[in-house]
Amino acid sequence: MNNSIAGLDLAKNVFHVVFFDRHFKEVRKRMLRRNQVLAFFANTPPVLIGMEACSGSSYWGRELIKLGHEVKIIAPQHVKPYVRGNKNDYNDARGIAAAAKIPGMPTVPVKTIEDQDIQAAHRMRTQCIRDRTALCNSMRGLLAEYGIVLARGVSKVRKGIPELLEDPDNALTPFFKEMLARRYEQLVEIDGHIDFYTQKIKQRAKEDDACKRLQTIPGFGPINASAFKSAVGDGSAFSKGRDVSASLGVVPRQHSSGGKDNLLGISKRGDRYLRSLLVHGARSTVRAAANKDDQLSQWINRLRERRGIHKASVALANKMARIGWAGMPPAGALNKDYSF
């Protein structure tokens, strides 16, 4: 591979690419239709191609790697400072190339098709859970107009609606009951979709070696493990475990000056969904640690006593991310005492 760099601005139909030589002097630019991209790069000598992380970036990354190119996918917030001049597609491509040549620039791993499948299953499952929550809240709000208040929670709604439909003495009219019954059928249908996606995720986690290793770590179940694997990949995009926890936003924000360190709350960067899974898994582990005396549980109990359950849970989520990275190939084998 030569020292050339190309910035590729991805789009739905029209792509723009700008090439630079090893001295970062612009040598050519090109506009490509979607069906021309792969043929164009197949006839291009191997180069480093920078792209913004967006819908389709992993697909194009996989295809360009097959053609012998090196690919760097960079988050948009890291590209923006390098875009000069007015907003246009060529300037965007130039900014992407400028960001790609910076040593140490954080990159997004190119997902394998298997990891993308798992991520899609998680996205579909999450969307169904949101739809179910919205549906339950809608039914509770409509019932409140009739003077009937249901407790919060899906289980309360799931139990309460059939009782209301069968009760002949409440304030609900036959017309409204008919419509409410239809909404309840939608709730049952969404429950079925959620169960389907959950079983698919668990099945894949049972078959994947990395997910099986992750599930030996306290706080990791099949849902957490598969989500972590799909986000981190084989771990090669990170040089150390701290980079993983930082990318997931479970490290303190820093606002230091004059040689004085000032640490604030967690940064909450990166994947909110995966961060919430890690914290939920950590919280259950913190609660269970009260009755254990192994090395990790002793650390958790000491931290909980000093800082409380919530900060202890976030601290454990940080540790889980680092331990999880250590168990991913090629990072290495798990340290069973979880001491790092």
Automatic annotation (TrEMBL):
Q: What is this protein called?
A: Transposase
Tell me which Pfam families the record gives: DEDD_Tnp_IS110, Transposase_20
Q: Which PANTHER family match?
A: PUTATIVE TRANSPOSASE FOR IS117-RELATED, TRANSPOSASE FOR INSERTION SEQUENCE ELEMENT IS1111A
**What superkingdom does the record give?**
Bacteria
The Transposase IS116/IS110/IS902 C-terminal domain is annotated at 211-289
GO MF entries:
DNA binding; transposase activity
- BP GO terms, sorted: DNA transposition
Q: Where is the Transposase IS110-like N-terminal domain?
A: 6-146
